[in-house]
Amino acid sequence: xxxxxxxxxxxxxxxxxxxxxxxxxxxxxxxxxxxxxxxxxxxxxxxxxxxxxxxxxxxxxxxxxxxxxxxxxxxxxxxxxxxxx
Amino acid sequence: xxxxxxxxxxxxxxxxxxxxxxxxxxxxxxxxxxxxxxxxxxxxxxxxxxxxxxxxxxxxxxxxxxxxxxxxxxxxxxxxxxxxxxxxxxxxxxxxxxxxxxxxxxxxxxxxxxxxxxxxxxxxxxxxxxxxxxxxxxxxxxxxxxxxxxxxxxxxxxxxxxxxxxxxxxxxxxxxxxxxxxxxxxxxxxxxxxxxxxxxxxxxxxxxxxxxxxxxxxxxxx
Lengths: 85, 222
Description:
The complex is a heterodimer of chains A (85) and B (222).
Chain A: E1 2-12, H1 19-27, E2 42-51, H2 54-69, E3 75-83
Chain B: E1 4-9, H1 16-25, E2 29-34, E3 45-48, H2 69-78, E4 83-86, H3 88-95, E5 102-104, E6 112-120, E7 136-143, E8 147-149, H4 152-160, E9 164-168, E10 179-183, E11 189-192, H5 209-221
């Protein structure tokens, strides 16, 4: 078995309104930050998983994301795997 | 026959006793059922009440959906039993896949606590069969994540099958198509953000919720 460190980035799917991102974007000029656009707020989750190889680890994490960590109606997940040495 | 209603208590639910009280006031027999139970034997209807099941961690309803009682609630619903999700209960029903769509943070990012007007759009549902189509009811809302959203296809389906049960007269939270509550195709599962149990006594400012709960008891009696 190998151990993989996992980073899951959950974000709202394109086209889904992101009131938090919009509020942050509107606040930026007031703080003197100009030229920032497309702010989207999401969440990041880190954990470790044991699997025989990387495809197996990715498959398990994808399933975990689909069934639990994201709501596929409104959210997407980006998965990053790093094998622990 | 007296209808028996099970009101599910998740850790973090906080409207279960209000629901029991309002249903009993109407002559129903209501009982709190712990989320760890797997039996709904003897119940004719189920209510998933408002609150913050499992602290609303991850997403509202995301963890509650895996509570032991939920497989039994799903079987109960599939067998045609009336299941109502109020506020957090609505969020649980969407997460559990018993109702389509999802509930997002309110447009404007404000926690909303007020009494609003909602319109009964169809009387063909377990929560509106005793109401009048087109009637406007004054019902409290109390939520941060009540902004109903779904994909275009689902919305078209909800409209075509007249499954939008309640609409806000003035949209408070950004919900698509002013949706306050919907039902499944079999019309026995209904989810809504407003709280009928909090509009069940003149002292609370409105008794309009009783029409909805009376509908549930009627649906429970079959």
